[in-house]
Amino acid sequence: MNTLHISTSTDEETAITTVSLEGFLDADTVLRLRKVLFDLIKEGHYKLIIDLKKLQYISSAGVGVFIGVIKRVRENSGDIIFLQPLPTVYRVLDILGLTKIFKILEQEKEAVDELNKI
Amino acid sequence: MKENLKVREINILSDIKNLSEVRTSVSRFLLAEGMDESQIVDEVKLAIDEALTNIIEHAYQLQKRKKINIRLKFAKDKLTVILRDRGRSCAWEEIPEPDPKRYMREEREDGWGVFLIKKLMDEITYRPNKGEHNEMVMVKYLKGGEGR
């Protein structure tokens, strides 16, 4: 069974929330991620780092959830930054054009600096 | 001369929870046939996942107990994947390319699958209502084969 582990942590000082994904993100497992993202946004967390370094697989359903929330996030002075995707995951993001919409960075510090600029 | 093809078959019910099991079986079949190039395995697995998601969500409207048949035909120069369902057919050719900026404005999450399948596979044929079922045929040419 290909599962998805999701963990979140918020830095109170910077108000940046990191959502770490581990495993497989498909049309099944995305339902849980969707709820996590919607709950974070509802609670006013708009500066999000999505840590992808342990995500082994993503389908278009997984990509779609980020497109679905990015408008609300940016309208509230926030953004979503992808951190360290594996080559297989990066390739899907690239084919679907998300590399032009989202910042994809390799270092957590860079991501934090970017979000602090907003 | 008749081509000597090896065929593997997977039958599942239309539950989105079965996607993971299909991906695992497809990987196993491809590796057993000596397809150890990870990019090809990843692309075929993802294309099948996307096609199954479309069948489950659109053809079967999320009903979980409908049948889907998947066949993988292995030839020296190509892999052919055939998916069959008995749900609603779709106007495959009329599905537009995704427009990320519009989707962002509309907060739209879906609409990427067909585009991704077209990018991952070399040939795609969709035959709605062929006999009693819809049939999608996806072809991936292998190294040294036609189209590569």
Tell me the radius of gyration of chain A: 13 Å
Largest sheet, spatial ordering of strands of chain A: 1-2-3-4-5
Task: Please give the CATH architecture of chain A.
Answer: 2-Layer Sandwich
What's the pLDDT, averaged over the residues of chain B?
91
CATH topology of chain A: Transcription Regulator spoIIAA
Count of DSSP helices of chain B?
Answer: 4
How many domains comprise the coordinates of chain A? 1
Main sheet specs of chain A: 5 strands, mixed
Number of strands of chain B: 5
CA-CA gap between termini of chain A: 40 Å
Run of helices and strands of chain A: EEHEHEHEH
First CA to last CA of chain B: what distance? 23 Å
Oligomer: heterodimer
Describe this structure in words.
The complex is a heterodimer of chains A (118) and B (148). Chain A starts with a strand and ends with a helix. Chain A has a single domain (4-117), classed as Transcription Regulator spoIIAA. Chain A is globular, with a radius of gyration of 13 Å. A five-stranded mixed beta sheet of chain A has the order 1-2-3-4-5. In chain A, strand 4 (79-83), helix 3 and strand 5 form a beta-alpha-beta unit. The longest helix of chain A has 16 residues, at 60-75. Chain A is an alpha/beta fold and 118 residues long. In chain A, 39% of the residues are buried. Chain A is built from four helices and five strands. Helix content of chain A is 41%, strand content 32%. Chain B is of the alpha+beta class. Chain B has one domain: Histidine kinase-like ATPase, C-terminal domain (Heat Shock Protein 90). Helices cover 34% and strands 28% of the residues of chain B. Chain B contains four helices and five strands; from the N terminus they run βααββααββ. Chain B has a five-stranded antiparallel beta sheet with strand order 1-2-3-5-4, with helices on one face. In chain B, strand 4 (123-130) and strand 5 (133-141) form a beta hairpin. In chain B, helix 1 (19-32) runs antiparallel to helix 2 and helix 2 packs antiparallel against helix 4 (113-120). Chain B is globular and about 45 Å long. Chain B starts with 5 loop residues before the first strand and ends in a 7-residue tail after the last strand. At the A-B interface, helix 2 and helix 3 of A face helix 1, helix 2, helix 3 and helix 4 of B.
